[in-house]
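Bit of a strange request maybe. I'm writing a small parser for C-alpha cell strings and I need a real example to test against, not something I typed by hand. Could someone generate the C-alpha cells for this chain?
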Amino acid sequence: MLKGLKTFTKDGLQYDLLSGLIIALVSIPISMGYAQIAGLPPQYGLYGSVLPVVLFALFSSSPQYIFGIDAAPAALVGGTLAGLGIASGSEEAAKLVPVITFFVGIWLLLFYLIKFGKLTRFVSSPVMGGFITGICSTIILMQTPKLFGGQAGTGELRELLPHIKKEFVTSFNPWALVLAGVCITVIQLFRKLSPKVPASAAVMVIAAIAQYFTGFCGRLGVNTLPQVKRGLGSFVIPAFTLESCYTGIVSGFTIALVIAAETLLAEHSFAMKNDYRLDDQSELMAFTVCNLSASFIGVCPVNGSVSRTSMNDQFGGKSQLTSLAAAAVMALILMFGTGFISYLPVPVLTSIVVCALWSGTEFSLAQKLWKSSRKEFWIFVAAFAGVLIFGTIYGVIIGVILSFLNVIIRESRPSTSFLGVIPGRNHFYDLATYAKARPIKNVVIYRFNGNLFFANITGFTEEIQAAVNDDTKYFIVDASGIGSIDATAAEALGVLYKKLTQKGVRLFLVEQIPKVNEELRTYGLSYIIESGGIRKTITDALAAVGYYRPYLLCENYDTKQISEEAAILQEFEWAFGKDAQHYLDLYTKKILRNAKAIDPNDSHAEEEYTHLWDGISPISDHVLLDFMEDHIAELSEKYDVSRQTIKSVIRNHRKALVSDGYVSHEM
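Reply from user aminoacidic:
Good idea to test on real output. This should exercise your parser:
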C-alpha cells in the first residue's frame, strides 16, 4: 500500500498537481460519456472519478498509471444491457450495473489469489506495443464523431466505421470540426516546440471562458457538456437477486478479464518506457478494491485509462499524488463547480483526448521492428489488428499465440557456426565472419546456440553429418549455448554419436553447463561421458587428442581472396555493423591524440601507452593494432603524431596483450 506515492518528490510536486488538474478536467467528458455508454446517467461517470481513483492511488504500485471510468468495461456493460433488452438510463439499468460491478470485483479478487499477473510475463514487447496501439486507435475512432458534432461510438472497427459515416451524414457541423482542428494543431505544435507548456489545459480554459462570455457554441451549433447536479453521489447497496447475480457472474468474468489484461499490459508498457517496476499482485488488489467500492456508489466497472495515463506522462506526473489531486479536483467540481461543466465545448475536450491517445500509440516501435525483425513486426500488427477488429481479449490472445509460435520457430532454427583459429591469437573465431580464421586440420568445431529439443534436433544432426568429410577425425560441439536437452534430442544424440564413431570420427561436447551433463546421464548417455566425449573447453578437447598450439591448419581451406584492409574492417563489422569504419577511425583518433601528451623518455611511458586503451573492447585491440600498423605514415600525418610514438603505442600494447593472456603477432 502507498507504493505509488513513494516516488513523490518536492521537485515533482508542481508536475503532479498540474497533471492531476488536467486529468480531472479531461475526465469530465470522458467519464460522463462512458457512463452513458454503460447505461447510467452521465453524472455517475463523475462519481466514479473520485473514490475509486483515491483507492487506486493508495493501493497501486505504479507511480503514474491513472484509473477511472473507461471505454472497454463501459462498452461491455452496455452490450450486456442491450442483450437483455434493458433501456439505457432506465431504473432497471441503474439496479443491475452495480451488481455487475460487484462481481467484477469478486472475479478480480480471484485473479489476485491465483496470481493472474504472472501471465503478463509471457507477453512480448511487440504484443504489448500492438495491444496499446490498438486500444488507443479504437478509442480515437470511438471519439472521432464528437470532433465534428456527432455522438461517440462503441464496439470494434466493424461497428465504428459505419457509425462514423452515419454521424458524419446526420450530425456534421463544420464549426465543430474547425474548432477541433485548431485545438489539435495548437496542442501538437506546443508538444513539439515547447512540450513543458500545458497546452491542453490552456486550450480548455480559453474555450470555456470564451463560451462563458460570448456563447459562441450556441450560435454555431457546437455541443457543450450537459448540466450536472451538485453532489458526490450516494452510497447504494447492489440489488442482488438470483437473476442479477447470474448476469453479474457471467458478464463480470469477461469484464474482469479485460480489466486485468488490458490494465496490466498497459501498466507494464509505461513501466518499461519510464524504467520502474510493478508489483502485479498489488495492481490486482488495487483493481479489486476499486471495483468493489465502485459497486457501492452505483457506477459501472472501473479500469486503467491509457489516454489519461498518456497525458500524465506527457505533463510529467511522477507519483500517485496526481491521482489524488485529480480526485480532489473532481470532488470540488461536483460540490461547487458543476456550473462550469456546461461551458466546456465537446470538440475541444475530445481534441485533448485524441492528442493524448495519439501520443500513447507505439507506431514508432512498429517502424523499428520493420527494420530489425519482420516476424516481430507482424506480431505487432496482429496484436494491433486483433484489438482493433475483434476486441481487447482477442487481440491479446492472437498476439500471445503468435509470440509463442515465434519462440518455437526461433528455437527450432537457432544460429550455428563453424569455428577456427587466427594465427597468433588465443581464441576460436567464426570462419564465416573472420577472414583470417582457418579451420584446424582434421578437426571440425561447431557451435550450436540453442537448447536441443524435438523441434531442432534433426537440423542439428543433419548439419553435423554434412560437415563431416573424409579428412575429419574429430568433431567438437561448442555446447555453451545449449541449456537443456529433451528426451527426443537425447535419443538422436546417442544415434549420432554411434554413427560418427563407426566412421572413425570422435565426437566431443564442450563448454556445456553441468545441467546438460546431468540430463545426458538421466537419458542413458553416460557412455559419452565415460568414453571421454565430454570436456570442459575446446582447448581441453584438442589437448585430449594431442593437439596443442600452434595448431596445424588446413592447407586447402577455400577462402575468398580478401585484402588485409577489408579483413581488418570485417572484424570490426562484427561489433559495429555499417558503422564499423566510423568507430575504427574514432578509437584510433582517441588513442593517438592522447599519445601525443606522453613523453617517450619518461620511465612510466610504457605503462601510460597501455592505459590509452581504456574503454576499448579487448576483442577489438588486435584489429586496431593491425590497422595502425598498416597506416603508420598516414596516421602520423593526419593526427600530427610522430611515427616513433605510434610504433611505441603498438609495441607496448602488444606486450600488454601477451601479459593479459592474449597472444600477439610476431613483431
